Hints:
This protein is α/β, with parallel strands linked by helices. 48% of the residues lie in helices and 15% in strands.
Amino acid sequence: MKIIYSFAMSFYSLAIKMISPFNNKAKLMKEGRRDLFKRLNKDINNVDNYIWIHAASLGEFEQGRPVIEKIRKDYPQYKLLLTFFSPSGYEVRKNYDGVDLVYYLPLDSANNAKRFIDIVNPKMVFFIKYEYWYFFLRELKKRDIPTFIFSSIFLKEQIFFKFYGAFWKNILKSFTHIFVQTKESISLLNSIGINNCSIAGDTRFDRVAEIAKSAPKISIIEDFKSRNNVVVCGSTWPKDEEFLSQYIKSSNDDFKWIIAPHEVHKKHINDIVKLFDNECVLYSKADSANLKDAKILIVDCIGILSSVYQYACISYIGGGFGVGIHNTLEAATFGLPIVFGPNYSRFKEACDLIDSKAAFSYSEYSQLFPIMNKLIQDEKYRTESGDKSSEYVGMNIGATDIILTKAMQK
């Protein structure tokens, strides 16, 4: 299996090089790793003590951010190295000032792992949620470097728990400790002989709680909202937008709507504008005059959605008609009832919010209509659902402290 894994990594590396002239993501991965060890050698001072934190992409970084920031604050004797596998994380956060260095992770091979760890010589390592690189973890274990993974969830369908999953099971045994979100994850790990694990929860709760406390005011949104109630539809995709347009066109209420699509390229924004018969205002072109009577505001930029939720009384989360819904916790932390499509079962927090009657799912328009009508027309019902969202977030804050209290004892 190790030979197959090595071959797969080599093939992946070759594929990136081959398609990089035609694929922007591959090009960024190739360019970002160019002369990586040379640059790292120059940047790393071997008298400093480094903690290395690795995130696959931007989502995992945001999940791990509370841990990064608490280490920065409470353990100033360490310098921090943050690595990403994907360009969607590195390109957005390469100038993040919460750490000392930001790099791409070298592709996983025996030689790369040895060279990287020789240079960095980390005193401690944190992987965020789902990252299982065989050669890096083997080298860290060989050197007895404390290595942790946190906010993980394990499911019985995963390869670790199959009769043919011995190779991957041994990868898990490389971690000093595994911090998981659920009791089910503990049971599954115990069933394959892994007992160095415990429930710490999900650090995203700590992150969204901090976002809610420090969310900046947005004057354009305030002008649009004025004295009205607002529904914020975040990270929407075309299918979400199609159903939302049907509802908005059929409703006679005085609610206003903010739609922040997942993709903000020009064609998609133009498609949304057409969908709403041009009766909307783009955030990029908004001013006090055209916002006054507007019913729909389209957020055609990225980076502000988590703060926009503070102006809502109802939230809609997109992605439920694709591979899965987007971040529900950013809305829940502001005490909002949440609506989303059918593909949410892989997300524990979405299932929990459904169970607590803080969130509502639908599969077709005939189901969306009564859900939205009830939330819009029944203020008491809306408030009670929102309160359950707040309670859920509040009950789950604290994973960061649990993780670092235990990790720093090693």
